[in-house]
Each structure stands twice: as structure tokens, then as C-alpha cells.
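Progress note, sequence design subtask.
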């Protein structure tokens, strides 16, 4: 206590609180934790430093961030200054959640706009008021499929789904008693034949695919929705929303549920978070959606107003009837997406997508011309692709880092996954190419 003067509780405060709840020491609060699982070692923590020492330490750190060619679910897109400026306003940063809807009209308004924009972007009927991230949104979509089915608890997952997302879905499925079956891949894409085989076995509630997939490949999902629906299974597509400015939407593919991570819509990478998950579906599934839905109505004076029209969470209804245990709506990040979409507009989103697509394909071809890279497969991609490196990939990766570049994500012994966004300049890509020639 004496070391940290800024701690709010004095030793006397702590003593009185312990006395009130009937325990002698703070350690007594953890008496129910079994001794065999308690950590007994020393934490590997650095020694304490003064404020001046901390400032000096940070001053020695590199100030120039790495030029980012990495993606795999988190992309270095440009965020207009206006977005961060508006989001940082105190009324947005301090607001939590609209429990009192009648005095939360501002929060409800932007959530409503978020839902509208995401529904239009994905080509779906409705959107909920955001999820934690793309992985949990996909897991919730899986649970929606099982909840909507009659006596079916199998869900088919494409092998081309992002492994990070798959691990989260596996965890959700394990504790909800859902059986997951993997659809095999063929040349980097979902095998339709294997999907049909698994569907024919019966008991399937849903099918989950991803496009662009874990390799950056844009999958042709023609007929997939009809195949799933013929066996009374829901068709779920995980996708990158910024790419939908040019690609076919999940709605156009016939999906029942669209899900994924909204980070590509202007949210900074921020060392991996926070982000926001989106979940959109057809109107007939609205009652199965987790979280909240905000609707538009009229108040007693006939003026436009907003209300929570769906609150299928355990705070509002019996726990066993709740559709999700996600309790904290990440509406601040949903607001980030809303302002970004409003600022960029339809044309701005298309320009971002077109520039990313064009530059990715140019870099892809130029890297192959160096003779040090070769394609892993001949499939269409958007702004992310996998190449096989001829040589010591780890050494190449380290050289790039030393030159101030993050060259991609290593996905195999010789495979590098590279992403290009509208932020990458010709000079940056030329430096990448020159390093590849060494």
C-alpha cells in the first residue's frame, strides 16, 4: 500500500471492508480456488520506474510504424481524421449502453444508422446492434442456425474458414453441444461435392463458408445456398465488409446470415483491437438474433424517435430464453463504422476497394517476376494473396522487418500471405519488391 500513493483505498479502508464481509484477509477471498491450480512462481515483471524513466524509455522506442502488408483479418485501411475526431467527443466516449431508451436517443439514432448501412452493404434484411468481433459473430451465427433448426445440431464449417475464427466457433460449439463437421477444401476453395455428401447424411442445421477465404481467395458460391436450403439448413457467409463495395454480397449469394469483422471499415488496427463484429440476416430469422435491434418510431408529438425493438438478452428475459450472453454492445466501434461509412459514401467505398484490388494484383505479379516467389494456386483474389517463397522465409521476413516493413503473415513453412490496401504507395511496394530480389 505504501508503495502506490495513488491507490484509492487506504489500509484502514481495506480492513473495514474485509470486516464488513466477514473475512480476515484479502487472501481469504480466494479460499475457494483450489491450491493445486494456484500460481506459486514469480511474475516476470520489470522493476518499477519513475515517470521520468518511463518517458525516457518510450523516447527510445522506434517512432516510425512498420509499413504493413499483413492482413489475415485485420487490415491497414485509411481512416479519415473526421472519424476519430467525432468519435472522441465526450458524449460518445462516456456513453455505455441505452438502458433508458427514452433518454438515449442519440445512441439509439447512430445504432439505427449503423444497422441500416450494414444491412445495405451486405444485401441482407436486418442487422443487429453489433457484436464483439468477427469470430464471436460467426459463432453466434452458428448458434442461430442450430436454434432455428428442428432437431438438427450439426453445422458444417468450410476448411477455408480463418483458423482463428474456427477456434472460437469450436469453443462455442463445445459448450452448447453442437457437432461441427469440416467441409474439405479443393485447391484452396470449399469442396461443393464434400458439402453435398455431408448434407446428405442429414441432421445439418447450417453451413458456414468464408469469402474471401483464409487464403484470400474469392470463392464462387453459386448453388451453395440452394444446396443448403434443400436439406433445410441455413447458409452462413463470413466476409470482409469493405470488399462488398465491389464483390457480390451475401444477400446476392442467397445467404440466410452474413457475419464477420467490421475492422476493415475504417477502424484502426490498434495492435489487434478493439474491433466490432457484424451480424445480418433475413427478416424471418430476426427473432433468433442475439443482442439488440433498434427501430424507428414516432413519439407522442409525432416526431421521429428511436426505440429498442429487440432485446433478446438475459438482462431482459429469462436466461434460458436468451439468444446470447453477449451483454456489452460495442456501440462505440459501431459508431466508428457508421461515421466512416457516412464520410466515405458509396463512391468512396468503391474507390478504396478498386485501389486495393488493383495494387494487390500489381504487387502479386511483380513479386512473381522476381523469381523468388511463386503462386500457391491459380484462383481469383481480391486484395490479399498467398505466395510461396523460394528460400529461407524466416530470414526474408526478418530482413523486411529490419527495413521497416511487415511483409505479411507467415501461414506455412514457405507460404506468405500478403495484403495490400489503398494506403500502400508505389514507393512502399517498390521497396518490398527490391527486398524480394536480394
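Output:
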Amino acid at each position: 500500500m505504501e508503495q502506490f500513493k495513488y491507490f484509492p483505498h487506504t489500509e484502514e479502508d481495506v480492513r473495514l471492508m474485509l470486516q464488513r464481509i466477514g473475512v480476515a484477509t484479502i487472501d481469504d477471498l480466494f479460499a475457494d480456488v483450489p491450491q493445486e491450480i494456484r500460481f506459486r512462481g514469480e511474475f516476470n515483471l520489470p522493476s518499477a520506474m519513475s515517470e521520468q524513466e518511463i518517458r525516457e524509455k518510450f523516447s527510445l522506442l522506434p517512432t516510425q510504424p512498420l509499413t504493413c502488408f499483413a492482413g489475415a483479418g485485420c487490415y491497414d485501411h485509411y481512416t479519415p481524421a473526421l472519424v476519430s475526431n467525432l468519435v472522441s467527443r465526450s458524449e460518445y466516449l462516456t456513453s455505455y449502453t441505452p438502458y433508458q431508451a427514452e433518454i438515449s436517443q442519440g445512441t439509439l439514432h447512430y445504432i439505427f444508422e449503423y444497422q441500416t448501412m450494414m444491412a445495405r452493404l451486405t444485401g441482407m434484411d436486418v442487422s443487429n446492434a453489433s457484436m464483439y468481433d468477427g469470430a464471436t459473430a460467426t459463432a453466434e451465427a452458428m448458434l442461430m442456425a442450430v436454434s432455428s433448426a428442428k432437431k438438427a445440431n450439426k453445422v458444417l464449417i468450410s476448411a477455408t474458414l480463418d483458423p482463428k475464427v474456427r477456434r472460437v466457433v469450436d469453443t462455442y460449439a463445445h459448450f452448447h453441444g453442437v457437432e461441427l463437421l469440416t467441409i474439405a477444401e479443393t485447391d484452396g476453395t470449399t469442396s461443393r461435392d464434400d458439402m453435398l455428401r455431408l448434407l446428405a447424411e442429414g441432421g445439418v442445421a447450417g453451413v458456414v463458408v468464408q469469402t474471401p477465404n483464409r487464403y484470400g481467395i474469392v470463392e464462387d458460391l453459386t448453388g451453395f445456398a440452394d444446396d443448403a436450403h434443400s436439406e433445410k439448413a441455413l447458409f452462413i457467409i463470413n466476409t470482409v465488409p469493405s470488399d462488398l463495395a465491389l464483390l457480390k454480397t451475401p444477400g446476392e449469394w442467397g445467404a440466410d446470415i452474413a457475419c464477420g469483422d467490421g475492422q476493415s471499415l475504417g477502424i484502426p488496427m490498434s495492435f489487434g483491437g478493439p474491433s466490432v463484429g457484424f451480424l445480418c440476416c433475413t427478416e424471418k430469422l430476426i427473432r433468433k438474433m442475439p443482442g439488440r435491434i433498434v427501430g424507428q418510431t414516432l413519439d407522442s408529438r409525432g416526431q421521429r424517435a428511436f426505440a429498442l425493438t429487440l432485446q433478446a438478452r438475459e438482462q431482459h428475459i429469462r436466461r434460458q430464453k436468451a439468444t446470447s450472453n453477449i451483454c456489452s454492445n460495442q456501440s462505440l466501434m459501431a459508431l466508428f463504422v457508421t461515421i466512416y461509412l457516412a464520410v466515405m459514401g458509396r463512391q468512396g467505398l468503391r474507390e478504396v476497394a478498386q485501389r486495393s484490388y488493383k495494387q494487390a494484383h500489381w504487387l502479386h505479379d511483380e513479386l512473381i517476376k522476381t523469381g523468388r516467389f511463386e503462386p500457391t494456386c491459380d484462383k481469383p483474389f481480391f486484395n490479399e494473396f498467398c505466395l510461396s517463397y523460394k528460400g529461407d522465409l524466416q530470414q526474408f521476413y526478418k530482413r523486411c522487418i529490419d527495413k521497416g516493413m511487415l511483409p505479411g503473415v507467415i501461414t506455412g513453412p514457405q507460404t506468405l500471405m500478403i495484403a495490400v490496401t489503398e494506403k500502400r504507395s508505389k514507393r512502399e511496394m517498390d521497396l518490398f519488391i527490391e527486398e524480394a530480389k536480394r
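The longest helix spans residues 331-369. Work on this subtask will continue into the next period as scheduled.
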